[in-house]
Amino acid sequence: MANTNQSAREYVNNVFETVKRRNPHENEFHQAVEEIFESLVPVFEQNPTYIEHNILERISEPERMVTFRVPWLDDQGKTQVNRGFRVQFNSAIGPYKGGIRFHPSVNASIIKFLGFEQIFKNSLTGQPIGGGKGGADFDPKGKSDNEIMRFCQSFMTELYKHIGPDTDVPAGDIGVGAREVGYMFGQYKRLRGAYEAGVLTGKAPDFGGSLARKEATGYGTVYFVQEMLKDNNDSFSGKTVVVSGSGNVSVYAMEKATELGAKVVACSDSNGYIYDENGINLATVKRLKEEENKRIKEYLEFHPEAKYFDECNGIWSIPCDIALPCATQNEINEEDAKKLIANGVKAVGEGANMPSTLKAIDLFIENNILFAPAKAANAGGVAVSALEMAQNSARLSWKFEEVDAKLKEIMQDIYKHSIEAAEEFGHPGNLVIGANIAGFKKVADAMIWQGVI
């Protein structure tokens, strides 16, 4: 048991130093842990029981971390080797749940930061799911369908030993869509000799997937920001919006924001960004990115009045009322935040995982910018994944409108619980602190109830 005579601040600082010592050079993981730990000081001041049970040290250490070799044959018959990961971080409230990411940047730090965030995000959804994450440093760009299939099959040949419908339920993430999930599910089925539909989510709707799953993270982000604006007597109507990225999260955040009356003027990919003062034509972006797999600069071929700029981070210099970072971690730094604030941004909603640095977040809060943190705002994706699990268990398929209505209700509840927790613990309006506390308390209470595990 921890020393309950130490102050809450001392306890948090000591555990954070332990985390850094045990996980050297894992900067992304340190960043995620620091942001959450800082928010929890008021909780430990009011509830020393959490210190007594040493919840922080337990919750920041994964229950299990698996690293494995993924050999696969390219189209020239040459053996390639990548590294695969799965972190099973916390199962206090349900089976591990979290996506699989295929991207060259994937390493232990990235996977652990994502898995740690997933604990609290999943808790916020109100669904019975624990926190996990996985991936590989494989780059699907430029690979043939057969190469991607062979990689996915090799990846699952190891991963299947560690997952199951009641143990660990992966989903998609960056670089992993319905195609990749299908290849992995096929290999899992072959190895297990059973059709366990609930072992993976993000499946194609015709094969056990949920309608509205593709739209869920983007829609959910906008639903959350909508609640935040409504609480401040405002709305998306008539607002100028900038959205980074052009994948699923970005596209459907743009779609929902436009439906609510906003004008989206910019989006990006890893090469650069486009600015269309007349409003982004979403049909063109969908065709380029979802059907033709082309770069965003090709938008100008169809809309020559738009402008294209190299280096995607410049997108945050565009004046806007609402910024929705939906691309990747740490895409908004301190200087980007200063530009957004100087240009009159009113609200920031994080559609990606940890897209703002800690200094950027501090600036937004200090300047009274409405700020929707990722673990709350982008929880719609995993929420609908949990709804997919429920449909699989019941052997049912719900209509799009039914799933979308449940998604909106979940996002409204996340906002309500986050804003109430912020108020209760002395930081009214601070959704970073509120979301962290609301997500933490449910998991911490479950861990105490289950004993020392």
TrEMBL record:
Q: Which UniProt keywords apply?
A: NAD, Nucleotide-binding, Oxidoreductase
Q: Which Gene3D superfamilies does this UniProt record tie to the protein?
A: Glutamate Dehydrogenase, chain A, domain 3, Leucine Dehydrogenase, chain A, domain 1, NAD(P)-binding Rossmann-like Domain
Q: Tell me which residues are marked as the site Important for catalysis.
A: D173
Q: Write one Gene Ontology MF term.
A: nucleotide binding
Which amino acid positions bind substrate, per UniProt?
K97, Q118, K121, G172, S385
Residues the record marks as active site: K133 (proton donor)
Tell me which Gene Ontology terms the entry assigns under biological process.
Answer: glutamate biosynthetic process
Domain of life where this protein originates: Bacteria
Report the residue ranges that make up the Glutamate/phenylalanine/leucine/valine/L-tryptophan dehydrogenase C-terminal domain in this protein: 210-451
Q: Name one Pfam family in it.
A: ELFV_dehydrog_N
Q: Which residues bind NAD(+)?
A: T217, N248
Example GO CC term: the record gives: cytosol
Q: How does it assemble?
A: Homohexamer.
Which family would the database say this protein is a member of?
Belongs to the Glu/Leu/Phe/Val dehydrogenases family.
Q: Which NCBIfam families match?
A: PRK09414.1
List the protein's name: Glutamate dehydrogenase
